[in-house]
Amino acid sequence: MLSQFKIEFKKLKEIDKTMLFSMVALMIFGIINIYLSSKAEFGVLFLKRQSIWFVICMVALYFIIAIDYTLLKGYTPIFYWGSIVLLIVTIFIGTDINGARGWIRLGPLSFQPAELAKIATIMMLGKQLDEMEGTMNEWKNFLTMAFYAIVPAVFIVTQPDMGMTMVLFFIVVGIFFVGGLDIRIIGGGLLSLVLVLLLVWNSGVIQDYQKRRVTSFLNPEADSSAAGYQLRQSLISIGSGGAFGLRGEKGKTEVSGYAAQYVPEVHTDFIFASLGEQWGLVGALLLLLLYGMLISKMIAIGRTAKDKFGSAICIGLAAYFLFALWQNIGMTIGLMPITGITLPLISYGGSSLLTTVLSIGLILNIGMRRKKIYF
Fold it and tell me: How far is it, in rounded angstroms, from Cα 120 to Cα 79?
């Protein structure tokens, strides 16, 4: 049974080492910062949990790159509709976290079906694009693609999880762009998103405290809500990091830092506040360098993939990373509204880490098999 997952050495040599290194480096950097931001209150609890997830992710990574990704295309509809079923189940038995019913709890573990739906939607759109041979500008094909994009979005909006809805939208835009969709239609889609957000905003689905969480970035000093407090403390933490952060100051290596004490959700959504304080500008630039290496390789593999299915997966995930970085870092420094979007590979969270690593593993798989291996 396990022999089916044996990777031939000549294929293994084709794996993108730069992409693999940057992913692992980001995961390790994330574990270190999760510990630094949570040790004052929780000791080594989150360090142990994230480290266990790291091991699980590396094992799962091996299996995802061992299977030819073209074989996965046939199972994509099962994966896609299975994720939709999980989103529906979440409506009835989901757990509320930060005002959104988006989690299913299984004993001590919990996972977010929207994370699975994100990957499943990318794969489904890629499969459809491959079968259409890139002819997206025909109305039948466009409506088919739009249908598969809208179905998961509807259930994610009703949770309500506006952060994941925005992530899904920008993923879809990236895939539609690489699929050659007329730029005017993409522009119309952006306008439609604005109208939908305005309708949802005024529909009563979004609670007042959730609205304050989004709008607090406009004037955090005047906002006395929890969201305004969170942003103010984040700005103080990042500003106090200076050039080299607490880690670069002699005699302060045991200091937990300001962020660990005063920034809510510091080991999850707002981990960049702790990272900026602990490692300063140098650490933040190193983080962006690693992300830059990762995303550039995603785009490069997407451009040279042997089919539209592989190309769409790469570009869709690159779009996700770009938007998640912009949104997450932006909200911690007051440039973007506060949403529940985590920092990929860095923030605490097992299901998020696993789905992200599996996504990257899929891209590594596509890169390994973009050319024929001769014996």
Answer: 6
The letter for the amino acid at 13 is K
pLDDT at 375: 31
**Residue 109 forms beta bridges with which residues?**
106
Q: Which two tokens stand for residue 87?
A: 């989103």
**3-state DSSP of 46-57:** HHHHHHHHHHHH
Segment holding 68, helix H or strand E: none
Q: Residue 360: name the closest of 320, 324, 332 by CA.
A: 320
Q: How far is CA 206 from CA 155, 199, 277, in A?
A: 14, 10, 32
Along the chain (375 residues), what's the average pLDDT of each consecutive run of 10 residues?
60 85 96 91 89 94 89 91 93 75 75 89 92 78 90 87 84 85 75 74 65 61 65 89 77 66 87 93 95 95 89 92 93 84 91 91 90 43
How many residues are there in the chain?
375
How far is the C-alpha of 268 from the C-alpha of 343, rounded, in Å?
8
Retrieve residue 333's tokens: 């420094």
Under 8 Å between Cβ of 327 and 246: no
The tokens for 91 are 């409506």
Amino acid at 294: L
Q: Give the burial class of 158: count Cβ atoms within 10 A of its Cβ; 0-12 exposed, 13-18 middle, 19 or more buried.
A: middle
Helices 139-157, 113-132: inter-axial angle, 10-degree rounding: 180
Pairwise CA distance, residues 179 & 262, whole Å: 45
DSSP 275-298: HHHHHHHHHHHHHHHHHHHHHHHH
